């Protein structure tokens, strides 16, 4: 693959891990002898298409973060996150030096190199890309009273994962335009609001995000 633009990887690890239980951030949970976060960092650090890594953290875990990042030679900028995921991404975009940004959840340790490469290759034709998997289940859309209003066609229904990849300036402009809208739950939505096509690339069902302690057990089987 030929790719001549500078790429910044943004890894989000600033959450409070409320659903994980206990006081520990889930990105520090042990997974086969290493913290969950280690695996995402390793994937980007080893990819030759990634020029820099921006790690967005909760400052309460700074000492643990330093211990993990010391294992890698690729440049890693460490910044504090905001009160929401959207604010954390915005903080990172403002310091990213890349033409392209690839955003990943630090709590998704099963990131494959092909996911990174496929996202970047598709960026030659699109402004926004996301890894996703097709829904295995029927999805119902309800009103606020849980009354079903419609059923989505399964062949067109996807579950969004990360990484997600964007033209940096396009995404940064969209963030600033919609800065006050906290209903936005992922960066693809920002491009959708601007009428910009987002391409989905089929990923892998084992690319799970750690949310509860049970997820650690599932990931260990992979």
CATH superfamily: Spore Coat Polysaccharide Biosynthesis Protein SpsA, Chain A
Number of domains: 1
Helix and strand content put the structural class at alpha/beta
Largest sheet, in brief, is:
7 strands, mixed
Write down the secondary-structure element order: EEEHEHEHEHEEEEHHEH
- Please tell me what the overall shape is: globular
Q: What is the overall number of helices?
A: 7
Query: What name does CATH use for the topology?
Result: Spore Coat Polysaccharide Biosynthesis Protein SpsA, Chain A
**Mean pLDDT over all positions:** 91
Helix share bin: 25-40%
CATH class: Alpha Beta
Q: Could you give the count of β-strands? A: 11
CATH architecture: Alpha-Beta Complex
Low-confidence stretches: none
Global Rg: 17 Å
Strand fraction equals 25-35%
Q: What order do the strands of the largest sheet run in, or round the barrel if closed?
A: 5-4-1-6-10-7-11
